[in-house]
UniProtKB/TrEMBL annotation:
<dbReference type="GO" id="GO:0005634">
    <property type="term" value="C:nucleus"/>
</dbReference>
<feature type="domain" description="PARP catalytic">
    <location>
        <begin position="470"/>
        <end position="729"/>
    </location>
</feature>
<feature type="compositionally biased region" description="Low complexity">
    <location>
        <begin position="145"/>
        <end position="171"/>
    </location>
</feature>
<feature type="region of interest" description="Disordered">
    <location>
        <begin position="1"/>
        <end position="45"/>
    </location>
</feature>
<keyword id="KW-0520">NAD</keyword>
<keyword id="KW-0328">Glycosyltransferase</keyword>
<feature type="domain" description="WWE">
    <location>
        <begin position="256"/>
        <end position="333"/>
    </location>
</feature>
<feature type="coiled-coil region">
    <location>
        <begin position="371"/>
        <end position="412"/>
    </location>
</feature>
<dbReference type="InterPro" id="IPR018123">
    <property type="entry name" value="WWE-dom_subgr"/>
</dbReference>
<dbReference type="Pfam" id="PF02825">
    <property type="entry name" value="WWE"/>
</dbReference>
<protein>
    <recommendedName>
        <fullName>Poly [ADP-ribose] polymerase</fullName>
        <ecNumber>2.4.2.-</ecNumber>
    </recommendedName>
</protein>
<keyword id="KW-0175">Coiled coil</keyword>
<feature type="compositionally biased region" description="Pro residues">
    <location>
        <begin position="24"/>
        <end position="38"/>
    </location>
</feature>
<dbReference type="InterPro" id="IPR037197">
    <property type="entry name" value="WWE_dom_sf"/>
</dbReference>
<keyword id="KW-0539">Nucleus</keyword>
<dbReference type="GO" id="GO:0008270">
    <property type="term" value="F:zinc ion binding"/>
</dbReference>
<dbReference type="GO" id="GO:1990404">
    <property type="term" value="F:NAD+-protein mono-ADP-ribosyltransferase activity"/>
</dbReference>
């Protein structure tokens, strides 16, 4: 509501730029011939100082409403939108295109100007001019178009005196007619009465309609009144402000006047004719000063600047010419009393202040519009903010739930960290323990290796001892030979097994073949110790005899023998006793066990390459080639060449052989040789050691030949089978079937 009030207010101000024209005449009209008509009746607005104090209402007339008694109801005859003629004071003619724009319904002040109730606001001169006409001036300054200007001017000499059409309604009825006291007159009167009654009825009907309209008008009037009250309140505030300003100016003026009036001083006033015939405008103080100086210096002309224009002033012709537009107008110089000058200046200042005030109001309105726009913006922003707040709220909820998850994760993370720390601690302890254990392990390993090595040595010593021993005495020398199985944990069993397995060697696939087969893979099933007291006696006797023969001299050791060499018993000399392998058919092995070896039959089935003797090997795999199996016995086969049973159980005799002085032979000495060759000293060798090819011999593996039965003692029998995966030359031969 306040906003609208301001806007309407500004609208009026803009539409009414010369509102003051009606109440404030141009200054110093005295010198310009007869004043315009309204000045004859209006109170004087400028009073020259003639020595008496200034009129007390000099300023009041500018701002204080006049007495209400002067108001007229003339405006009531006019209505808004009606066309009227307007009297132009400056041009002295009626302008015929005036339109009543507004009729004031109350007493108000606009920018300090009093607008009385009933004042009429007219727009004229093609809408370019407008002014408020106070009620007392309506008769003089406005007229309805129907009036005749010529008759009017002629009759009264005043434009307003004879306004043709009556402005006020209901001119009184002329009641000067004589009465006719007769029946006709009565009848006429009765007729008139009837008509009057009919009129009355019609009037009362229309009156009801008017009452309704009046009610409506009153209600709308109340709203308008409210609006006007608001505006009035605002205008009063402005008036108070202006009144304070004017009060200050009046005090200043009074002081100036009182000083000036004492001395009757005058001051030069320079003016230019802005518009013909009498719209004089005073120069600004700086320009006035320059002009006055030029005049006293008697300069013919000078140039001044004002409002962005430059003017050429000719002081002899008293004209000014705009340098840019070449427009020329008249100027004048007057001497006015000092206090009048002050009044003029103050009036000018007041006008300036009013203009400033208007600009401020315009600014205020613009600011209000801006504020309104800003409020709209703010409302939009608030809606935005609400939407944002909603989304922020949902985001916060999300953040809360995420925070919960994060807390859980953090808690589990910390638990894990604790576990990790513990685990690290444990790991460190374990590492230390590991290092300790490693050290312990290393030292134990070293110890163990030492122990193992010692154990191995002990074991070898034990093996050597047990294998070197002949069966203990006393023996029943008359008893027959027999055999007994060795337990698998018997040291003899262990020692023999080790010897047996480690003696397996590579062999050619066939005689003369370049293909060498893998060593035989065999499993020992049992080992028997053979005890034959008679044979043992013979063997020991032979050994004693042989030892005594050679003057207690030890036999020459033979290099490169891998077979087990028996320990030399204390008190004995080394007789080169070895445990060697002899392979033969199973039935022949039985016979050897019962009777011992028969050197006369030696090489019977194998070909006696080194003569007629008993042949031994240091590789069990070589002896294996001359064996038959249990399956051969079942079918009556005693020839090792005919055995086709790779998986049959075989046996090899482990024989204690007294090699003594052994002749190393590089090649065959002849089949028919029946004794060992002779030495250089004429004594016979005890045996032959047939050398291998690497030693200059003809064999792949060594062979040993003895020619006397008593140099041999069958001591053990080893039963074994070739594994099913064995690919030795023997297995390949037996599987081939040829
Ligand atoms: Zn953490
Ligand atoms: Zn047999
Ligand atoms: Zn067989
Ligand atoms: Zn085999």
């Amino acid at each position: 509501m306040k906003m609208r009030g301001n806007r309407e207010h500004v609208y009026k101000v803009n539409q009414n730029p010369s509102a003051h024209e009606a109440i404030e005449p141009p200054p110093n009209t005295r010198e310009e011939g007869p004043p315009p008509p309204e000045l004859r009746q209006a109170p004087p607005k400028v009073i020259e100082c003639d020595g008496s104090p200034p009129a007390p209402d000099l300023f009041e007339s500018l701002v204080i409403p006049g007495p209400t008694a002067k108001r007229s109801d003339a405006a009531a005859a006019l209505s808004e939108g009606e066309k009227v003629h307007v009297w132009s004071k400056s041009r002295g003619i009626w302008i015929e295109d005036g339109v009543v724009q507004e009729i004031s319904k109350v007493d108000v002040q606009i920018l300090g100007e009093p607008i009385y109730k009933g004042s009429v606001f007219v727009v004229f001169n093609e809408g370019s001019n407008s002014k408020w006409v106070r009620p007392t001036d309506i008769q003089r300054l406005l007229r309805r178009p129907g009036a005749s200007p010529t008759a009017q001017a002629a009759a009264t000499g005043s434009p307003a005196a004879g306004a043709g059409t009556p402005m006020a309604p209901g001119t009184g009825k002329d009641g000067t007619e004589e009465q006719a006291p007769n029946a006709d007159a009565v009848a006429e009167l009765q007729e008139e009465l009837r008509q009057a009654r009919g009129d009355l009825l019609a009037l009362s009907k229309s009156n009801k309609g008017l009452l309704t309209q009046l009610k409506r008008a009153r209600s709308s009037n109340t709203a308008l009144q409210q609006k006007l009250d608001d505006q009035t309140q605002m205008l009063q505030k402005e008036q108070e402000f202006n009144a304070a300003l004017v009060d200050g100016l009046r005090q200043q003026g009074t002081r100036t006047c009182s000083k000036a009036s004492d001395r009757h001083e005058t001051v030069a006033c320079w003016e230019y004719l802005e518009q013909e015939p009498d719209a004089w405008r005073r120069y600004l103080p700086d320009a006035e000063k320059a002009l006055e100086e030029a005049r006293s210096d008697k300069l013919p002309e000078l140039t001044i600047s004002s409002s962005g224009f430059r003017y050429r002033i000719n002081l002899s012709a008293m004209t000014q010419t705009n340098v840019e537009t070449r427009r020329t107008c008249t100027i004048r110089r007057r001497e006015i009393l000092l206090h009048a000058d002050a009044v003029l200046k103050m009036t000018t200042e007041t006008q300036t202040l009013r203009g400033e005030n208007q600009r401020l109001i315009v600014d205020l309105c613009r600011k209000s519009d801006e504020i309104l726009a800003l409020e709209l913006d703010i409302r939009g922003l608030q809606e935005n903010i609400e939407a944002k707040t909603d989304s922020i709220r949902s985001l916060k909820a999300k953040i809360r739930s995420l925070s919960g998850e994060i807390d859980e994760l953090h808690a589990s993370h910390e638990r894990t960290e604790e576990c990790l720390v513990e685990a690290k601690h444990t790991a460190r302890k374990l590492e230390v323990r590991h290092t300790e254990l490693q050290f312990e392990h290393d030292s134990m390993k070293t110890n163990m290796e030492k122990l193992q090595s010692a154990l191995k040595q002990e074991r070898q010593k034990l093996y050597t001892t047990v294998l070197s021993q002949l069966p203990p005495k006393p023996l029943n020398e008359a008893a027959r030979g027999f055999c007994r199985s060795l337990d698998i944990d018997d040291p003899k069993h262990l020692a023999l097994l080790e010897q047996f397995q480690s003696s397996m060697a590579n062999h050619r696939l066939k005689l003369g073949s370049d293909h060498w087969c893998e060593p035989a893979k065999v499993s020992v099933t049992r080992i028997e110790e053979l005890i034959h007291p008679a044979n043992q006696q013979l063997y020991e006797a032979m050994r004693r005899m042989r030892a005594s023969e050679d003057s207690c001299r030890a036999c020459t050791p033979t290099a490169g023998i891998t077979a087990f060499k028996c320990e030399v018993q204390p008190g004995w000399v080394d007789m080169n006793e070895y445990l060697l392998y002899h392979g033969t058919s199973r039935c022949n092995a039985e016979q050897i066990m019962a009777r011992g070896f028969d050197a006369q039959r030696g090489g019977e089935s194998t070909g006696a390459m080194f003569g007629r003797g008993v042949y031994f090997a240091q590789n069990a795999s070589k002896s294996d080639l001359y064996t038959t199996c249990d399956l051969c016995e079942g079918i009556g086969n005693h020839d090792f060449r005919q055995c086709r049973h790779a998986q049959g159980e075989r046996c090899i005799l482990v024989t204690r052989v007294l090699l003594g002085e052994s002749k190393t032979a590089k090649n065959s000495g002849g089949k028919d040789q029946i004794r060992a060759p002779q030495r250089d000293d004429g004594i016979s060798y005890d045996s032959i050691t047939a050398l291998e090819k690497g030693e200059g011999g003809v064999l792949d593996h060594k062979e040993f030949v003895v020619f006397k039965d008593r140099q041999t003692l069958a001591s053990f029998r080893i039963f074994y089978r070739h594994d099913s995966s064995c690919s030795c030359n023997g297995c390949q031969h037996r599987r081939s079937g040829t």
